[in-house]
């Protein structure tokens, strides 16, 4: 349910399950940080990543800004300067501390950020424990905030991996447990074929979704085929060794420019040691697993590989329709927040976000929410591409076939992979 759709009712009591969900997600964020050293909390290697400490504070700022300040009577902020320091991009709220300088925020300390989280948690608990005339709207905002925090839980893993990966010591985030991976040989990629059809796209349920997943609408699909698994590291190595990064005919113009300017020769985190490819993982530097889906590739690299392989990337509508029909499965494999290097299935189809060829824009009839909360998705609908699915670091319960992730085509630090598609013949 979107905030716009909320109507007031005579019920002034909050659902107790809502507070339980809030506490569970808040605790999960803190638990994810347990392997960190104190010095790790402030790392920010590039502007696209944020320090762990900032993620922990910003998610608290969200609940404070959009729920406590307008709906908690006589609410007193713990620190009035946090409104500026931990605002991400909400111009309707006020100015923001520069994103690229978040790593300079040695203060507040980690202890003070944790105190801030506890303070906000206590105030939210008190708010939900009392009657309110705004139960429906607060419930909608709190649910949005819970899903917002889950997004930042995923960003925690992507950002800390990148930040630690800049250290020449290649530190281990957490030790790898013994692998239970099957040793079956990975077979050739197969394809599911779909006939032309007028299909329903977008979220049509009654539970939570982000505003960019609506409205549900009809879309005409031409016949297409979509791969039954993601491209593997071994298959991608063939692309590398056959000169894929040296042959401009496979690349979009902007992609070829990125290859030349940034010196790309392999996926992010890969390096060759004694003629063997290795990659930096959350468990340190490990040999590349040839049967694991290739990870940390940009849309440019995904498109170039598809062109080299005689295929293309799917549109987001093709991807969603295939998922609706049960041909893109594996959500149960993500229940334990496995990193890609720990995937237990040789074909681990859905362990990565999957690039599509679709530009990120609003669906027909999309309307931006009123107020600052409307800045959540709508204002980013330009110059980005849609990714579908979910990744091995996506929080449990935070994925669905209609979910639309979006990034700039040159970005590689997300857990992103490649699913091929072809025109139906």
TrEMBL record:
Q: Which GO terms describe its molecular function?
A: gamma-glutamyl hercynylcysteine sulfoxide synthase activity
**EC numbers, comma separated:** 1.14.99.50
Gene3D superfamilies of this UniProt entry? paralog of FGE (formylglycine-generating enzyme) (3.90.1580.10)
Q: Which UniProt keywords apply?
A: Oxidoreductase
Name the enzyme's class. oxidoreductase
What span is annotated as the signal peptide, if there is one? none
Q: Which domain of life is it from?
A: Bacteria
Residue ranges constituting the Sulfatase-modifying factor enzyme-like domain according to the UniProt record: 208-327
Q: Which PANTHER family match?
A: HERCYNINE OXYGENASE, SULFATASE MODIFYING FACTOR 1, 2
Name by which UniProt lists this protein? Hercynine oxygenase
Which source organism?
Answer: Sinobacterium norvegicum
- Organism phylogeny: Bacteria, Pseudomonadati, Pseudomonadota, Gammaproteobacteria, Cellvibrionales
């Amino acid at each position: 349910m979107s905030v716009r759709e909320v109507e007031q009712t005579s019920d002034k009591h909050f659902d107790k399950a809502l507070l339980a969900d809030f506490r569970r997600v808040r605790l999960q964020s803190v638990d994810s940080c347990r392997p960190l050293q104190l010095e790790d909390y402030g790392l920010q290697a590039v502007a696209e990543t944020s320090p762990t400490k900032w993620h922990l504070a910003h998610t608290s700022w969200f609940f404070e800004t959009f729920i406590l300040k307008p709906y908690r009577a006589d609410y007193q902020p713990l620190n009035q300067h946090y409104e500026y320091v931990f605002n991400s991009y909400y111009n309707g709220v006020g100015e923001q501390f520069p994103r690229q300088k978040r790593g300079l925020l040695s203060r507040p300390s980690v202890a003070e950020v944790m105190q801030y989280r506890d303070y906000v948690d206590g105030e939210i608990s008190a708010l939900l424990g009392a009657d309110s005339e705004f139960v429906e709207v607060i419930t909608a905002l709190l649910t949005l905030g819970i899903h917002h925090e889950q997004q930042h839980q995923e960003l925690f893993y992507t950002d800390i991996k990148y930040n630690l990966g800049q250290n020449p010591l290649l530190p281990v985030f957490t030790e790898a447990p013994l692998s239970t991976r099957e040793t079956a040989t990975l077979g050739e990629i197969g394809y599911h074929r779909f006939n032309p059809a007028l299909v329903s796209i977008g979220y049509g349920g009654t539970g939570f979704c982000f505003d960019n997943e609506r409205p549900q609408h009809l879309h005409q699909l031409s016949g297409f085929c979509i791969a039954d698994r993601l491209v593997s590291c071994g298959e991608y190595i063939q692309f590398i060794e056959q000169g894929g990064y040296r042959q401009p005919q496979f690349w979009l113009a902007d992609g070829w420019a990125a290859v030349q300017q940034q010196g790309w020769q392999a996926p992010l985190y890969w390096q060759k040691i004694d003629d063997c490819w290795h990659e930096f993982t959350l468990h340190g530097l490990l040999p590349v697993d040839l049967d694991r889906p290739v990870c940390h590739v940009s849309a440019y690299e995904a498109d170039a590989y598809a062109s080299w392989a005689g295929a293309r990337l799917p549109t987001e509508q093709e991807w969603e329709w295939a998922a609706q029909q049960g041909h893109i499965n594996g959500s149960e494999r993500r229940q334990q927040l496995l990193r890609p290097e720990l995937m237990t299935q040789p074909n681990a189809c859905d362990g990565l976000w999957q690039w599509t060829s679709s530009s990120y824009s609003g669906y027909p009839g999309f309307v931006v929410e009123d107020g600052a909360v409307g800045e959540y998705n709508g204002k980013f609908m330009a110059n980005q591409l849609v990714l579908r699915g979910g990744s091995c670091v996506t929080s449990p319960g935070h994925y669905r076939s209609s979910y639309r992730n979006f990034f700039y085509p040159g970005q590689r630090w997300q857990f992103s992979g490649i699913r091929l598609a072809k025109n139906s013949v």
